[in-house]
Design brief:
Distance between the termini: 38 Å
Structural class: mainly beta
Strand order of the largest sheet: 1-4-5-7-8-10-11-13
Radius of gyration: 23 Å
Number of helices: 1
Shape: elongated
Length: about 210
């Protein structure tokens, strides 16, 4: 009976481990899109979103983030005697890393490493193309949610990272460098002028309670 009671208390202790939650944000250290030739990219250089972590015994933890970034690229082409074409594409990318984490023993400043998998999905894609036709100069405008450059709407990848967890009173501040290798490209144009980067590095700072 005593052994059973100890086992139940141990299980309850694990199940009652506290969750921490807060906000994580930062900047990409690599470009989300690579553009050349007819293409230009204007992707905002920030990443932000909520984070939650289950803190387990022995310095272990499981973290889930939902990180948002805005993307934007444009295309401009002109053929002599055949008119010109201007295109603008905007959208959002949501990144969902699920990570196992280990914190090294320390009192206030605890280095940590993490690794896991991530999913990245595009939402709200809108491409507007304006064509100017000679000799009248008349224009036509079309809008689509399925750009010609779109290769894969959702992709998965492997994540590794390292940082430090600074515990100040009731909050944790956690700067981190994180690397993700995506399994496929979101964008890949037929002429090679636009592609998304499969190697992604980020500097992130988490503030959790």
């Amino acid at each position: 009976m005593r052994s059973l009671s100890l086992l139940l208390l141990g299980a309850m202790s694990v199940c009652a481990q506290p969750f921490s939650f807060g906000l994580k944000g930062g900047v990409p250290l690599t470009d989300f899109l690579d553009a050349s030739g007819f293409y230009q990219t204007n992707t905002n250089r920030y990443i932000v979103g909520p984070t939650i972590e289950l803190r387990l015994p022995f310095g272990l933890g499981v973290e889930l983030d939902a990180l948002y970034r805005h993307l934007n690229y444009s295309e401009s082409s002109s053929l002599l005697g055949l008119g010109s074409q201007q295109g603008t594409t905007t959208g959002s990318a949501w990144e969902f890393p699920l990570l196992a984490k280990y914190r090294f023993p320390s009192r206030i400043v605890r280095p940590y490493v993490d690794a896991g998998i991530a999913w990245d999905t595009l939402t709200g894609l809108t491409q507007t193309i304006t064509e100017t036709l000679p000799p009248t100069g008349n224009t036509t405008t079309t809008t689509t949610s399925n750009p010609a450059e779109l290769h894969k709407n959702t992709t998965e990848g492997f994540v590794i990272g390292a940082g430090i967890d600074v515990h100040l009173l009731v909050i944790h501040i956690s700067p981190e460098i994180r690397y993700t290798r995506w399994g496929a490209q979101h964008f890949l144009s037929s002429n090679g002028g636009l592609s998304s980067n499969q190697n992604q590095a980020e500097f992130l700072v988490g503030i959790t309670f």
